[in-house]
Write a structure and sequence with these properties.
The complex is a heterodimer of chains A (283) and B (110).
Chain A lengths: L2 H18 L3 H20 L2 H4 L3 H43 L1 H63 L8 H78 L13 H24 L1
Chain B lengths: L3 H8 L1 H11 L2 H21 L5 H12 L3 H17 L16 H4 L7
Helix pairs in contact in B: 1-2, 1-3, 2-3, 3-4, 3-5, 4-5
Classes of the chains: A mainly alpha (283), B mainly alpha (110).
């Protein structure tokens, strides 16, 4: 374990009791008792206090002070607790960087795979909807033609003093059309559901992407601090010399990174995130 | 009495068809083939099939159906397919479920 991780773990052990607020329960109890005593004093009423203002005021002051002392301490401890809890989260994010990164990658990949499946469904449903519309147009045209043919035949028959029954094909065409229309409505409804799921996924993906980037950042931080100890003597020497010359801070040295390098790193991270999704789709 | 078509479905497609053929129950055989064709069409949709004309031809050949009946089976399967709640996916982080239509399980034997 390197010095950085060791220091982090020591810091964690030190602030954990503060984060858990171990001192707070007895203080809260003390404050509650003091408040009760103060309230009891108030409940005794103004009449009783008439004519005894000075000793009662002293008692009130004592009771009030008994509330203030734990209250102030609780205020300070709660602030320290919030700070310690935030710091604990930061430390844990670094200490558990590998595990968090694996979880974030899995979640991202799972979402991407789900999105790919939904997109495939949309493609499928669009093709089916297209077919159904074509079939409905074709059946409608056939039905209209059959109706026109029947109309002409019926006209000729009536002129000859007869009548004809509508052809069976008219009835069956209507049945087929009803079937296609029902299937089309169901398919369009399914498509709308898939689309809304895709929209929800895309919205949620922003959060998943942020979690993955955050996990990558903590991992990068861990790697940085892992590599840092070997550079520290050289940096310390540089800082000491600069400080001696009078050209720098006594304990720090600013490192500047070429913009092109940062851009290249950003592109690499984007590729890594995209790759995490691709791996899942292939799996 | 139990529905003979339902009973035959338990035997499987081939044995069910042979049973009705042996019994000479033509109406039941037609109904059995229609039910089998609808189930088959549903599996095809679940596996990602999108070509209705191709499905129609395959069903006509496999189950000796007429064109209209094949389409009726496809429409019935499509209605069922569209009802499946699996379309309604909303959680990004939820692990992939065991949806056979997504994973390729229950592949079509063609």
């Amino acid at each position: 374990m390197n010095e950085f991780l060791k220091a982090l773990k020591e810091e964690r052990a030190r602030i954990e009791p503060i984060a858990q607020g171990e001192e707070l329960p007895p203080l809260r109890e003390q404050l509650a008792d003091a408040k009760s005593a103060l309230q009891a004093f108030r409940d005794r009423g103004n009449e009783e206090r008439m004519g005894h203002s000075e000793p009662l005021s002293r008692e009130f002051s004592q009771l009030h002070n008994a509330c203030l002392a734990p209250g102030d301490r609780i205020y300070v401890l709660e602030r320290e607790q919030r700070d310690a809890q935030r710091r604990l989260r930061e430390i844990d994010a670094v200490l558990n960087a590998d595990e968090n990164l694996a979880t974030a990658r899995a979640a991202w990949a799972s979402g991407a795979a789900e999105l790919a499946q939904l997109n495939a469904r949309i493609t499928q449903l669009d093709a089916i909807i297209g077919s159904l519309r074509g079939e409905i147009d074709e059946l409608t045209a056939k039905q209209q033609q059959a109706l026109a043919d029947y109309g002409e035949a019926e006209m000729a028959s009536r002129l000859a003093g007869k009548t004809t029954a509508p052809p069976k094909s008219l009835g069956s065409a209507e049945v087929e059309l009803s079937s296609r229309r029902a299937a089309l409505a169901a398919t369009e409804s399914a498509r709308a559901k898939v689309q809304s799921s895709i929209d929800a996924l895309l919205q949620a993906s922003d959060g998943a992407r942020a979690r993955l980037r955050n996990a990558l950042a903590r991992k990068a931080e861990l790697e940085y601090y892992d590599a840092l100890p070997s550079f520290l003597p050289a940096i310390a020497r540089l800082i000491a010399l600069n400080s001696w010359i009078g050209g720098g801070d006594r304990t720090s040295f600013t490192v500047r990174c070429d913009e092109g390098l940062v851009k290249a790193a950003a592109a690499e991270i984007d590729a890594e995130i995209a790759g995490a999704a691709t791996v899942s789709e292939a799996a | 009495m139990d529905d003979p078509v339902e009973l035959a479905l338990e035997l499987g497609e081939d044995r069910g068809q042979r049973l009705f053929e042996l019994l000479g129950a033509r109406a039941a055989l037609r109904e059995f083939r229609r039910v089998c064709a609808t189930k088959h069409a549903l599996r095809l949709f679940q596996a990602g099939e999108k070509d209705r004309a191709s499905m129609r031809d395959r069903l006509m050949q496999r189950y000796e159906l007429g064109r209209s009946t094949a389409y009726a089976c496809i429409d019935a399967a499509l209605n069922e397919f569209a009802k499946l709640s699996k379309f309604d996916r909303r959680s990004w982080t939820r692990a992939a479920d065991n949806d056979s239509s997504m994973t390729g399980d229950g592949a079509i034997d063609e």
